[in-house]
Amino acid sequence: MGRVVMYGSVSVDGFVADDNDQPGPLFEWLSSGDVPLDDSGAVKVSQTSYDYLRPYWDEIGVTICGRHVFDLTDGWDGQPPSGIDHVVVVTHRPAPEGWDPAAPFHFADGIEAAVTRAQQLAGDRTVEVAAGDVGGQVLAAGLVDEVRMDVVPVVLGSGRRYFGSVDAQHLLEDPDVVLPGNRVLHLRYRVRR
């Protein structure tokens, strides 16, 4: 089985979006460089960020997100983002009416079922869990192997928390990556077992 990685861009005060679910300046670093991160050329980062992120993006097989993110993005029009093979959506509701059943999206009722399904789909590749409420729940359940954060130099003050509503202590190892890029600090921690 591949690793389960919680990932997202985050403000220095720990938020992944503002109170209106908008990332605001959290994604500005994705247009702060000269190196295209993907074939579209829409995302351009510094060479440092590219060298760190491109290998990680290439190893992701499945992304897990919550229904809220799925609805906010209109299900990415049935196309998983960033070239990911599959998306597993944690939800207690069925797929939207008219949803194409052939789209590589899978709907799971609960985080354990979502992680199990994602690992089946990913095989030896990485399962990425979007930071926020679902990511915090997966961490709280002891199912996260690694936490990756792209820390952006902004204070949002309030909004959607990176770790969601986690209300218990979880120990991480010392960071094994602390890497400054343009308008971002890349951090990687293994979860202490």
From TrEMBL:
Residues 115-172 form the Bacterial bifunctional deaminase-reductase C-terminal domain. Signal peptide: none annotated. It comes from the Bacteria. GO terms for biological process: riboflavin biosynthetic process. InterPro entries: DHFR-like_dom_sf (IPR024072), RibDG_C (IPR002734). One of its GO terms (molecular function) is 5-amino-6-(5-phosphoribosylamino)uracil reductase activity. This is Dihydrofolate reductase.
